Amino acid sequence: MSNPNNVSLNINHALEFIDGNALNIPTLSILTEDGDIHPSATAPSISKHTAIKLYETMRFIRLLDERMQGAQRQGRVSFYMQCLGEEAAVTASAAALDQEDMIMAQYREQAALHYRGFTLDQFMNQMFSNELDLGKGRQMPIHYGSKELYYMTISSPLGTQIPQATGYAYGQKVNHIDAKTGELASTIDNVTICYFGEGAASEGDFHAGLNMAAVHKAPVIFFARNNGYAISTPADEQFKGDGIASRGVGYGIKTIRVDGTDALAVFAATQKAREIASTQGEPVLIESIAYRLGAHSTSDDPSGYRSKDEEANYKTCPIEKFKKWLVKQQWLNEEDDLKAKESIREDILAALKRAEVVQKPALEELVSDVYDTPIPSLVRQYNELKEHIQKHPDAYPVTAGRIK
Hints:
The protein has 13 helices and nine strands. The chain is an alpha/beta fold. Strand 4 (192-197), helix 6 and strand 5 form a beta-alpha-beta unit. The protein starts with 26 loop residues before the first strand and ends with a helix.
């Protein structure tokens, strides 16, 4: 029987509505708070090398976040966003990927970039928008990008990366389709992961991106970080369905919800999601549940919309939880860990001091590679800006001295 409506033809003769919360989605949890494996859980296969690198990345990002939060308060950088409470969600998911899988991030995924190999100096150069910044000083702080590390440059507007990820992933799939037979190769070499918060899932781009991925079977992993708040708006004022995971099911996408404070659960889920995307050539949605322990950004004060009592109820530290497991595996020594933290703090402060004295990019970097040859309108605008700065050099002390 044909089914032009593409629905399940389950005929019912009684008047009955399906409740909006009829789908009960479980949350995968593997690690206990004490760093043990839950009796009914199975730990994923993870090497000592990967586990230690995962932990070291989380540890580094926590220390970087602390230092740069302070630097913003000192007026040394204009803006910063911490990954506080979500380190495991971001790092463990990145650890489960191939080095050349494309990452399309939102703005709280600096751990994924560091796991790939983005250096401390590269972080600092971007945040200070100096002439060594890969983005040539054109972006506000924490809007990283690296072509070498397959990390798409971050955009400020929420959700833009979601349909882009679908399109990019579809391109990855098309490259593995035999031109003569039209058949898909057995395995797609690389897939795309797309990170976003539950607030961004309220954007139209989310729905367009997921529907397009489902219909065209793009090998993309949608990683929704449900941290409870879209800046100051709590989740229960954003949506009434069962989180973000229920939407994946609604779009016909394989879906899983995980404890985002549990590095092993996130690693296992992402590892399996990548297998599905690469071998079956279709999308997967992962919803990570991890409370945002800090403010949305340095421009935010969470005391205005949530209480200290609430914050105390969600104080689980994903780094400590994973650390306890590593210690029990005898893969980590507490004394060495303390020494490493002190060394990292010193390295971060030294890198900060180096980056803040590096010159800013030359003014012509604004237009130098927007086109192969700057178009007339850009040349005109650049000349007008140059003339304005030369007329008011005291108002632009850094730039005025570098105009050629």
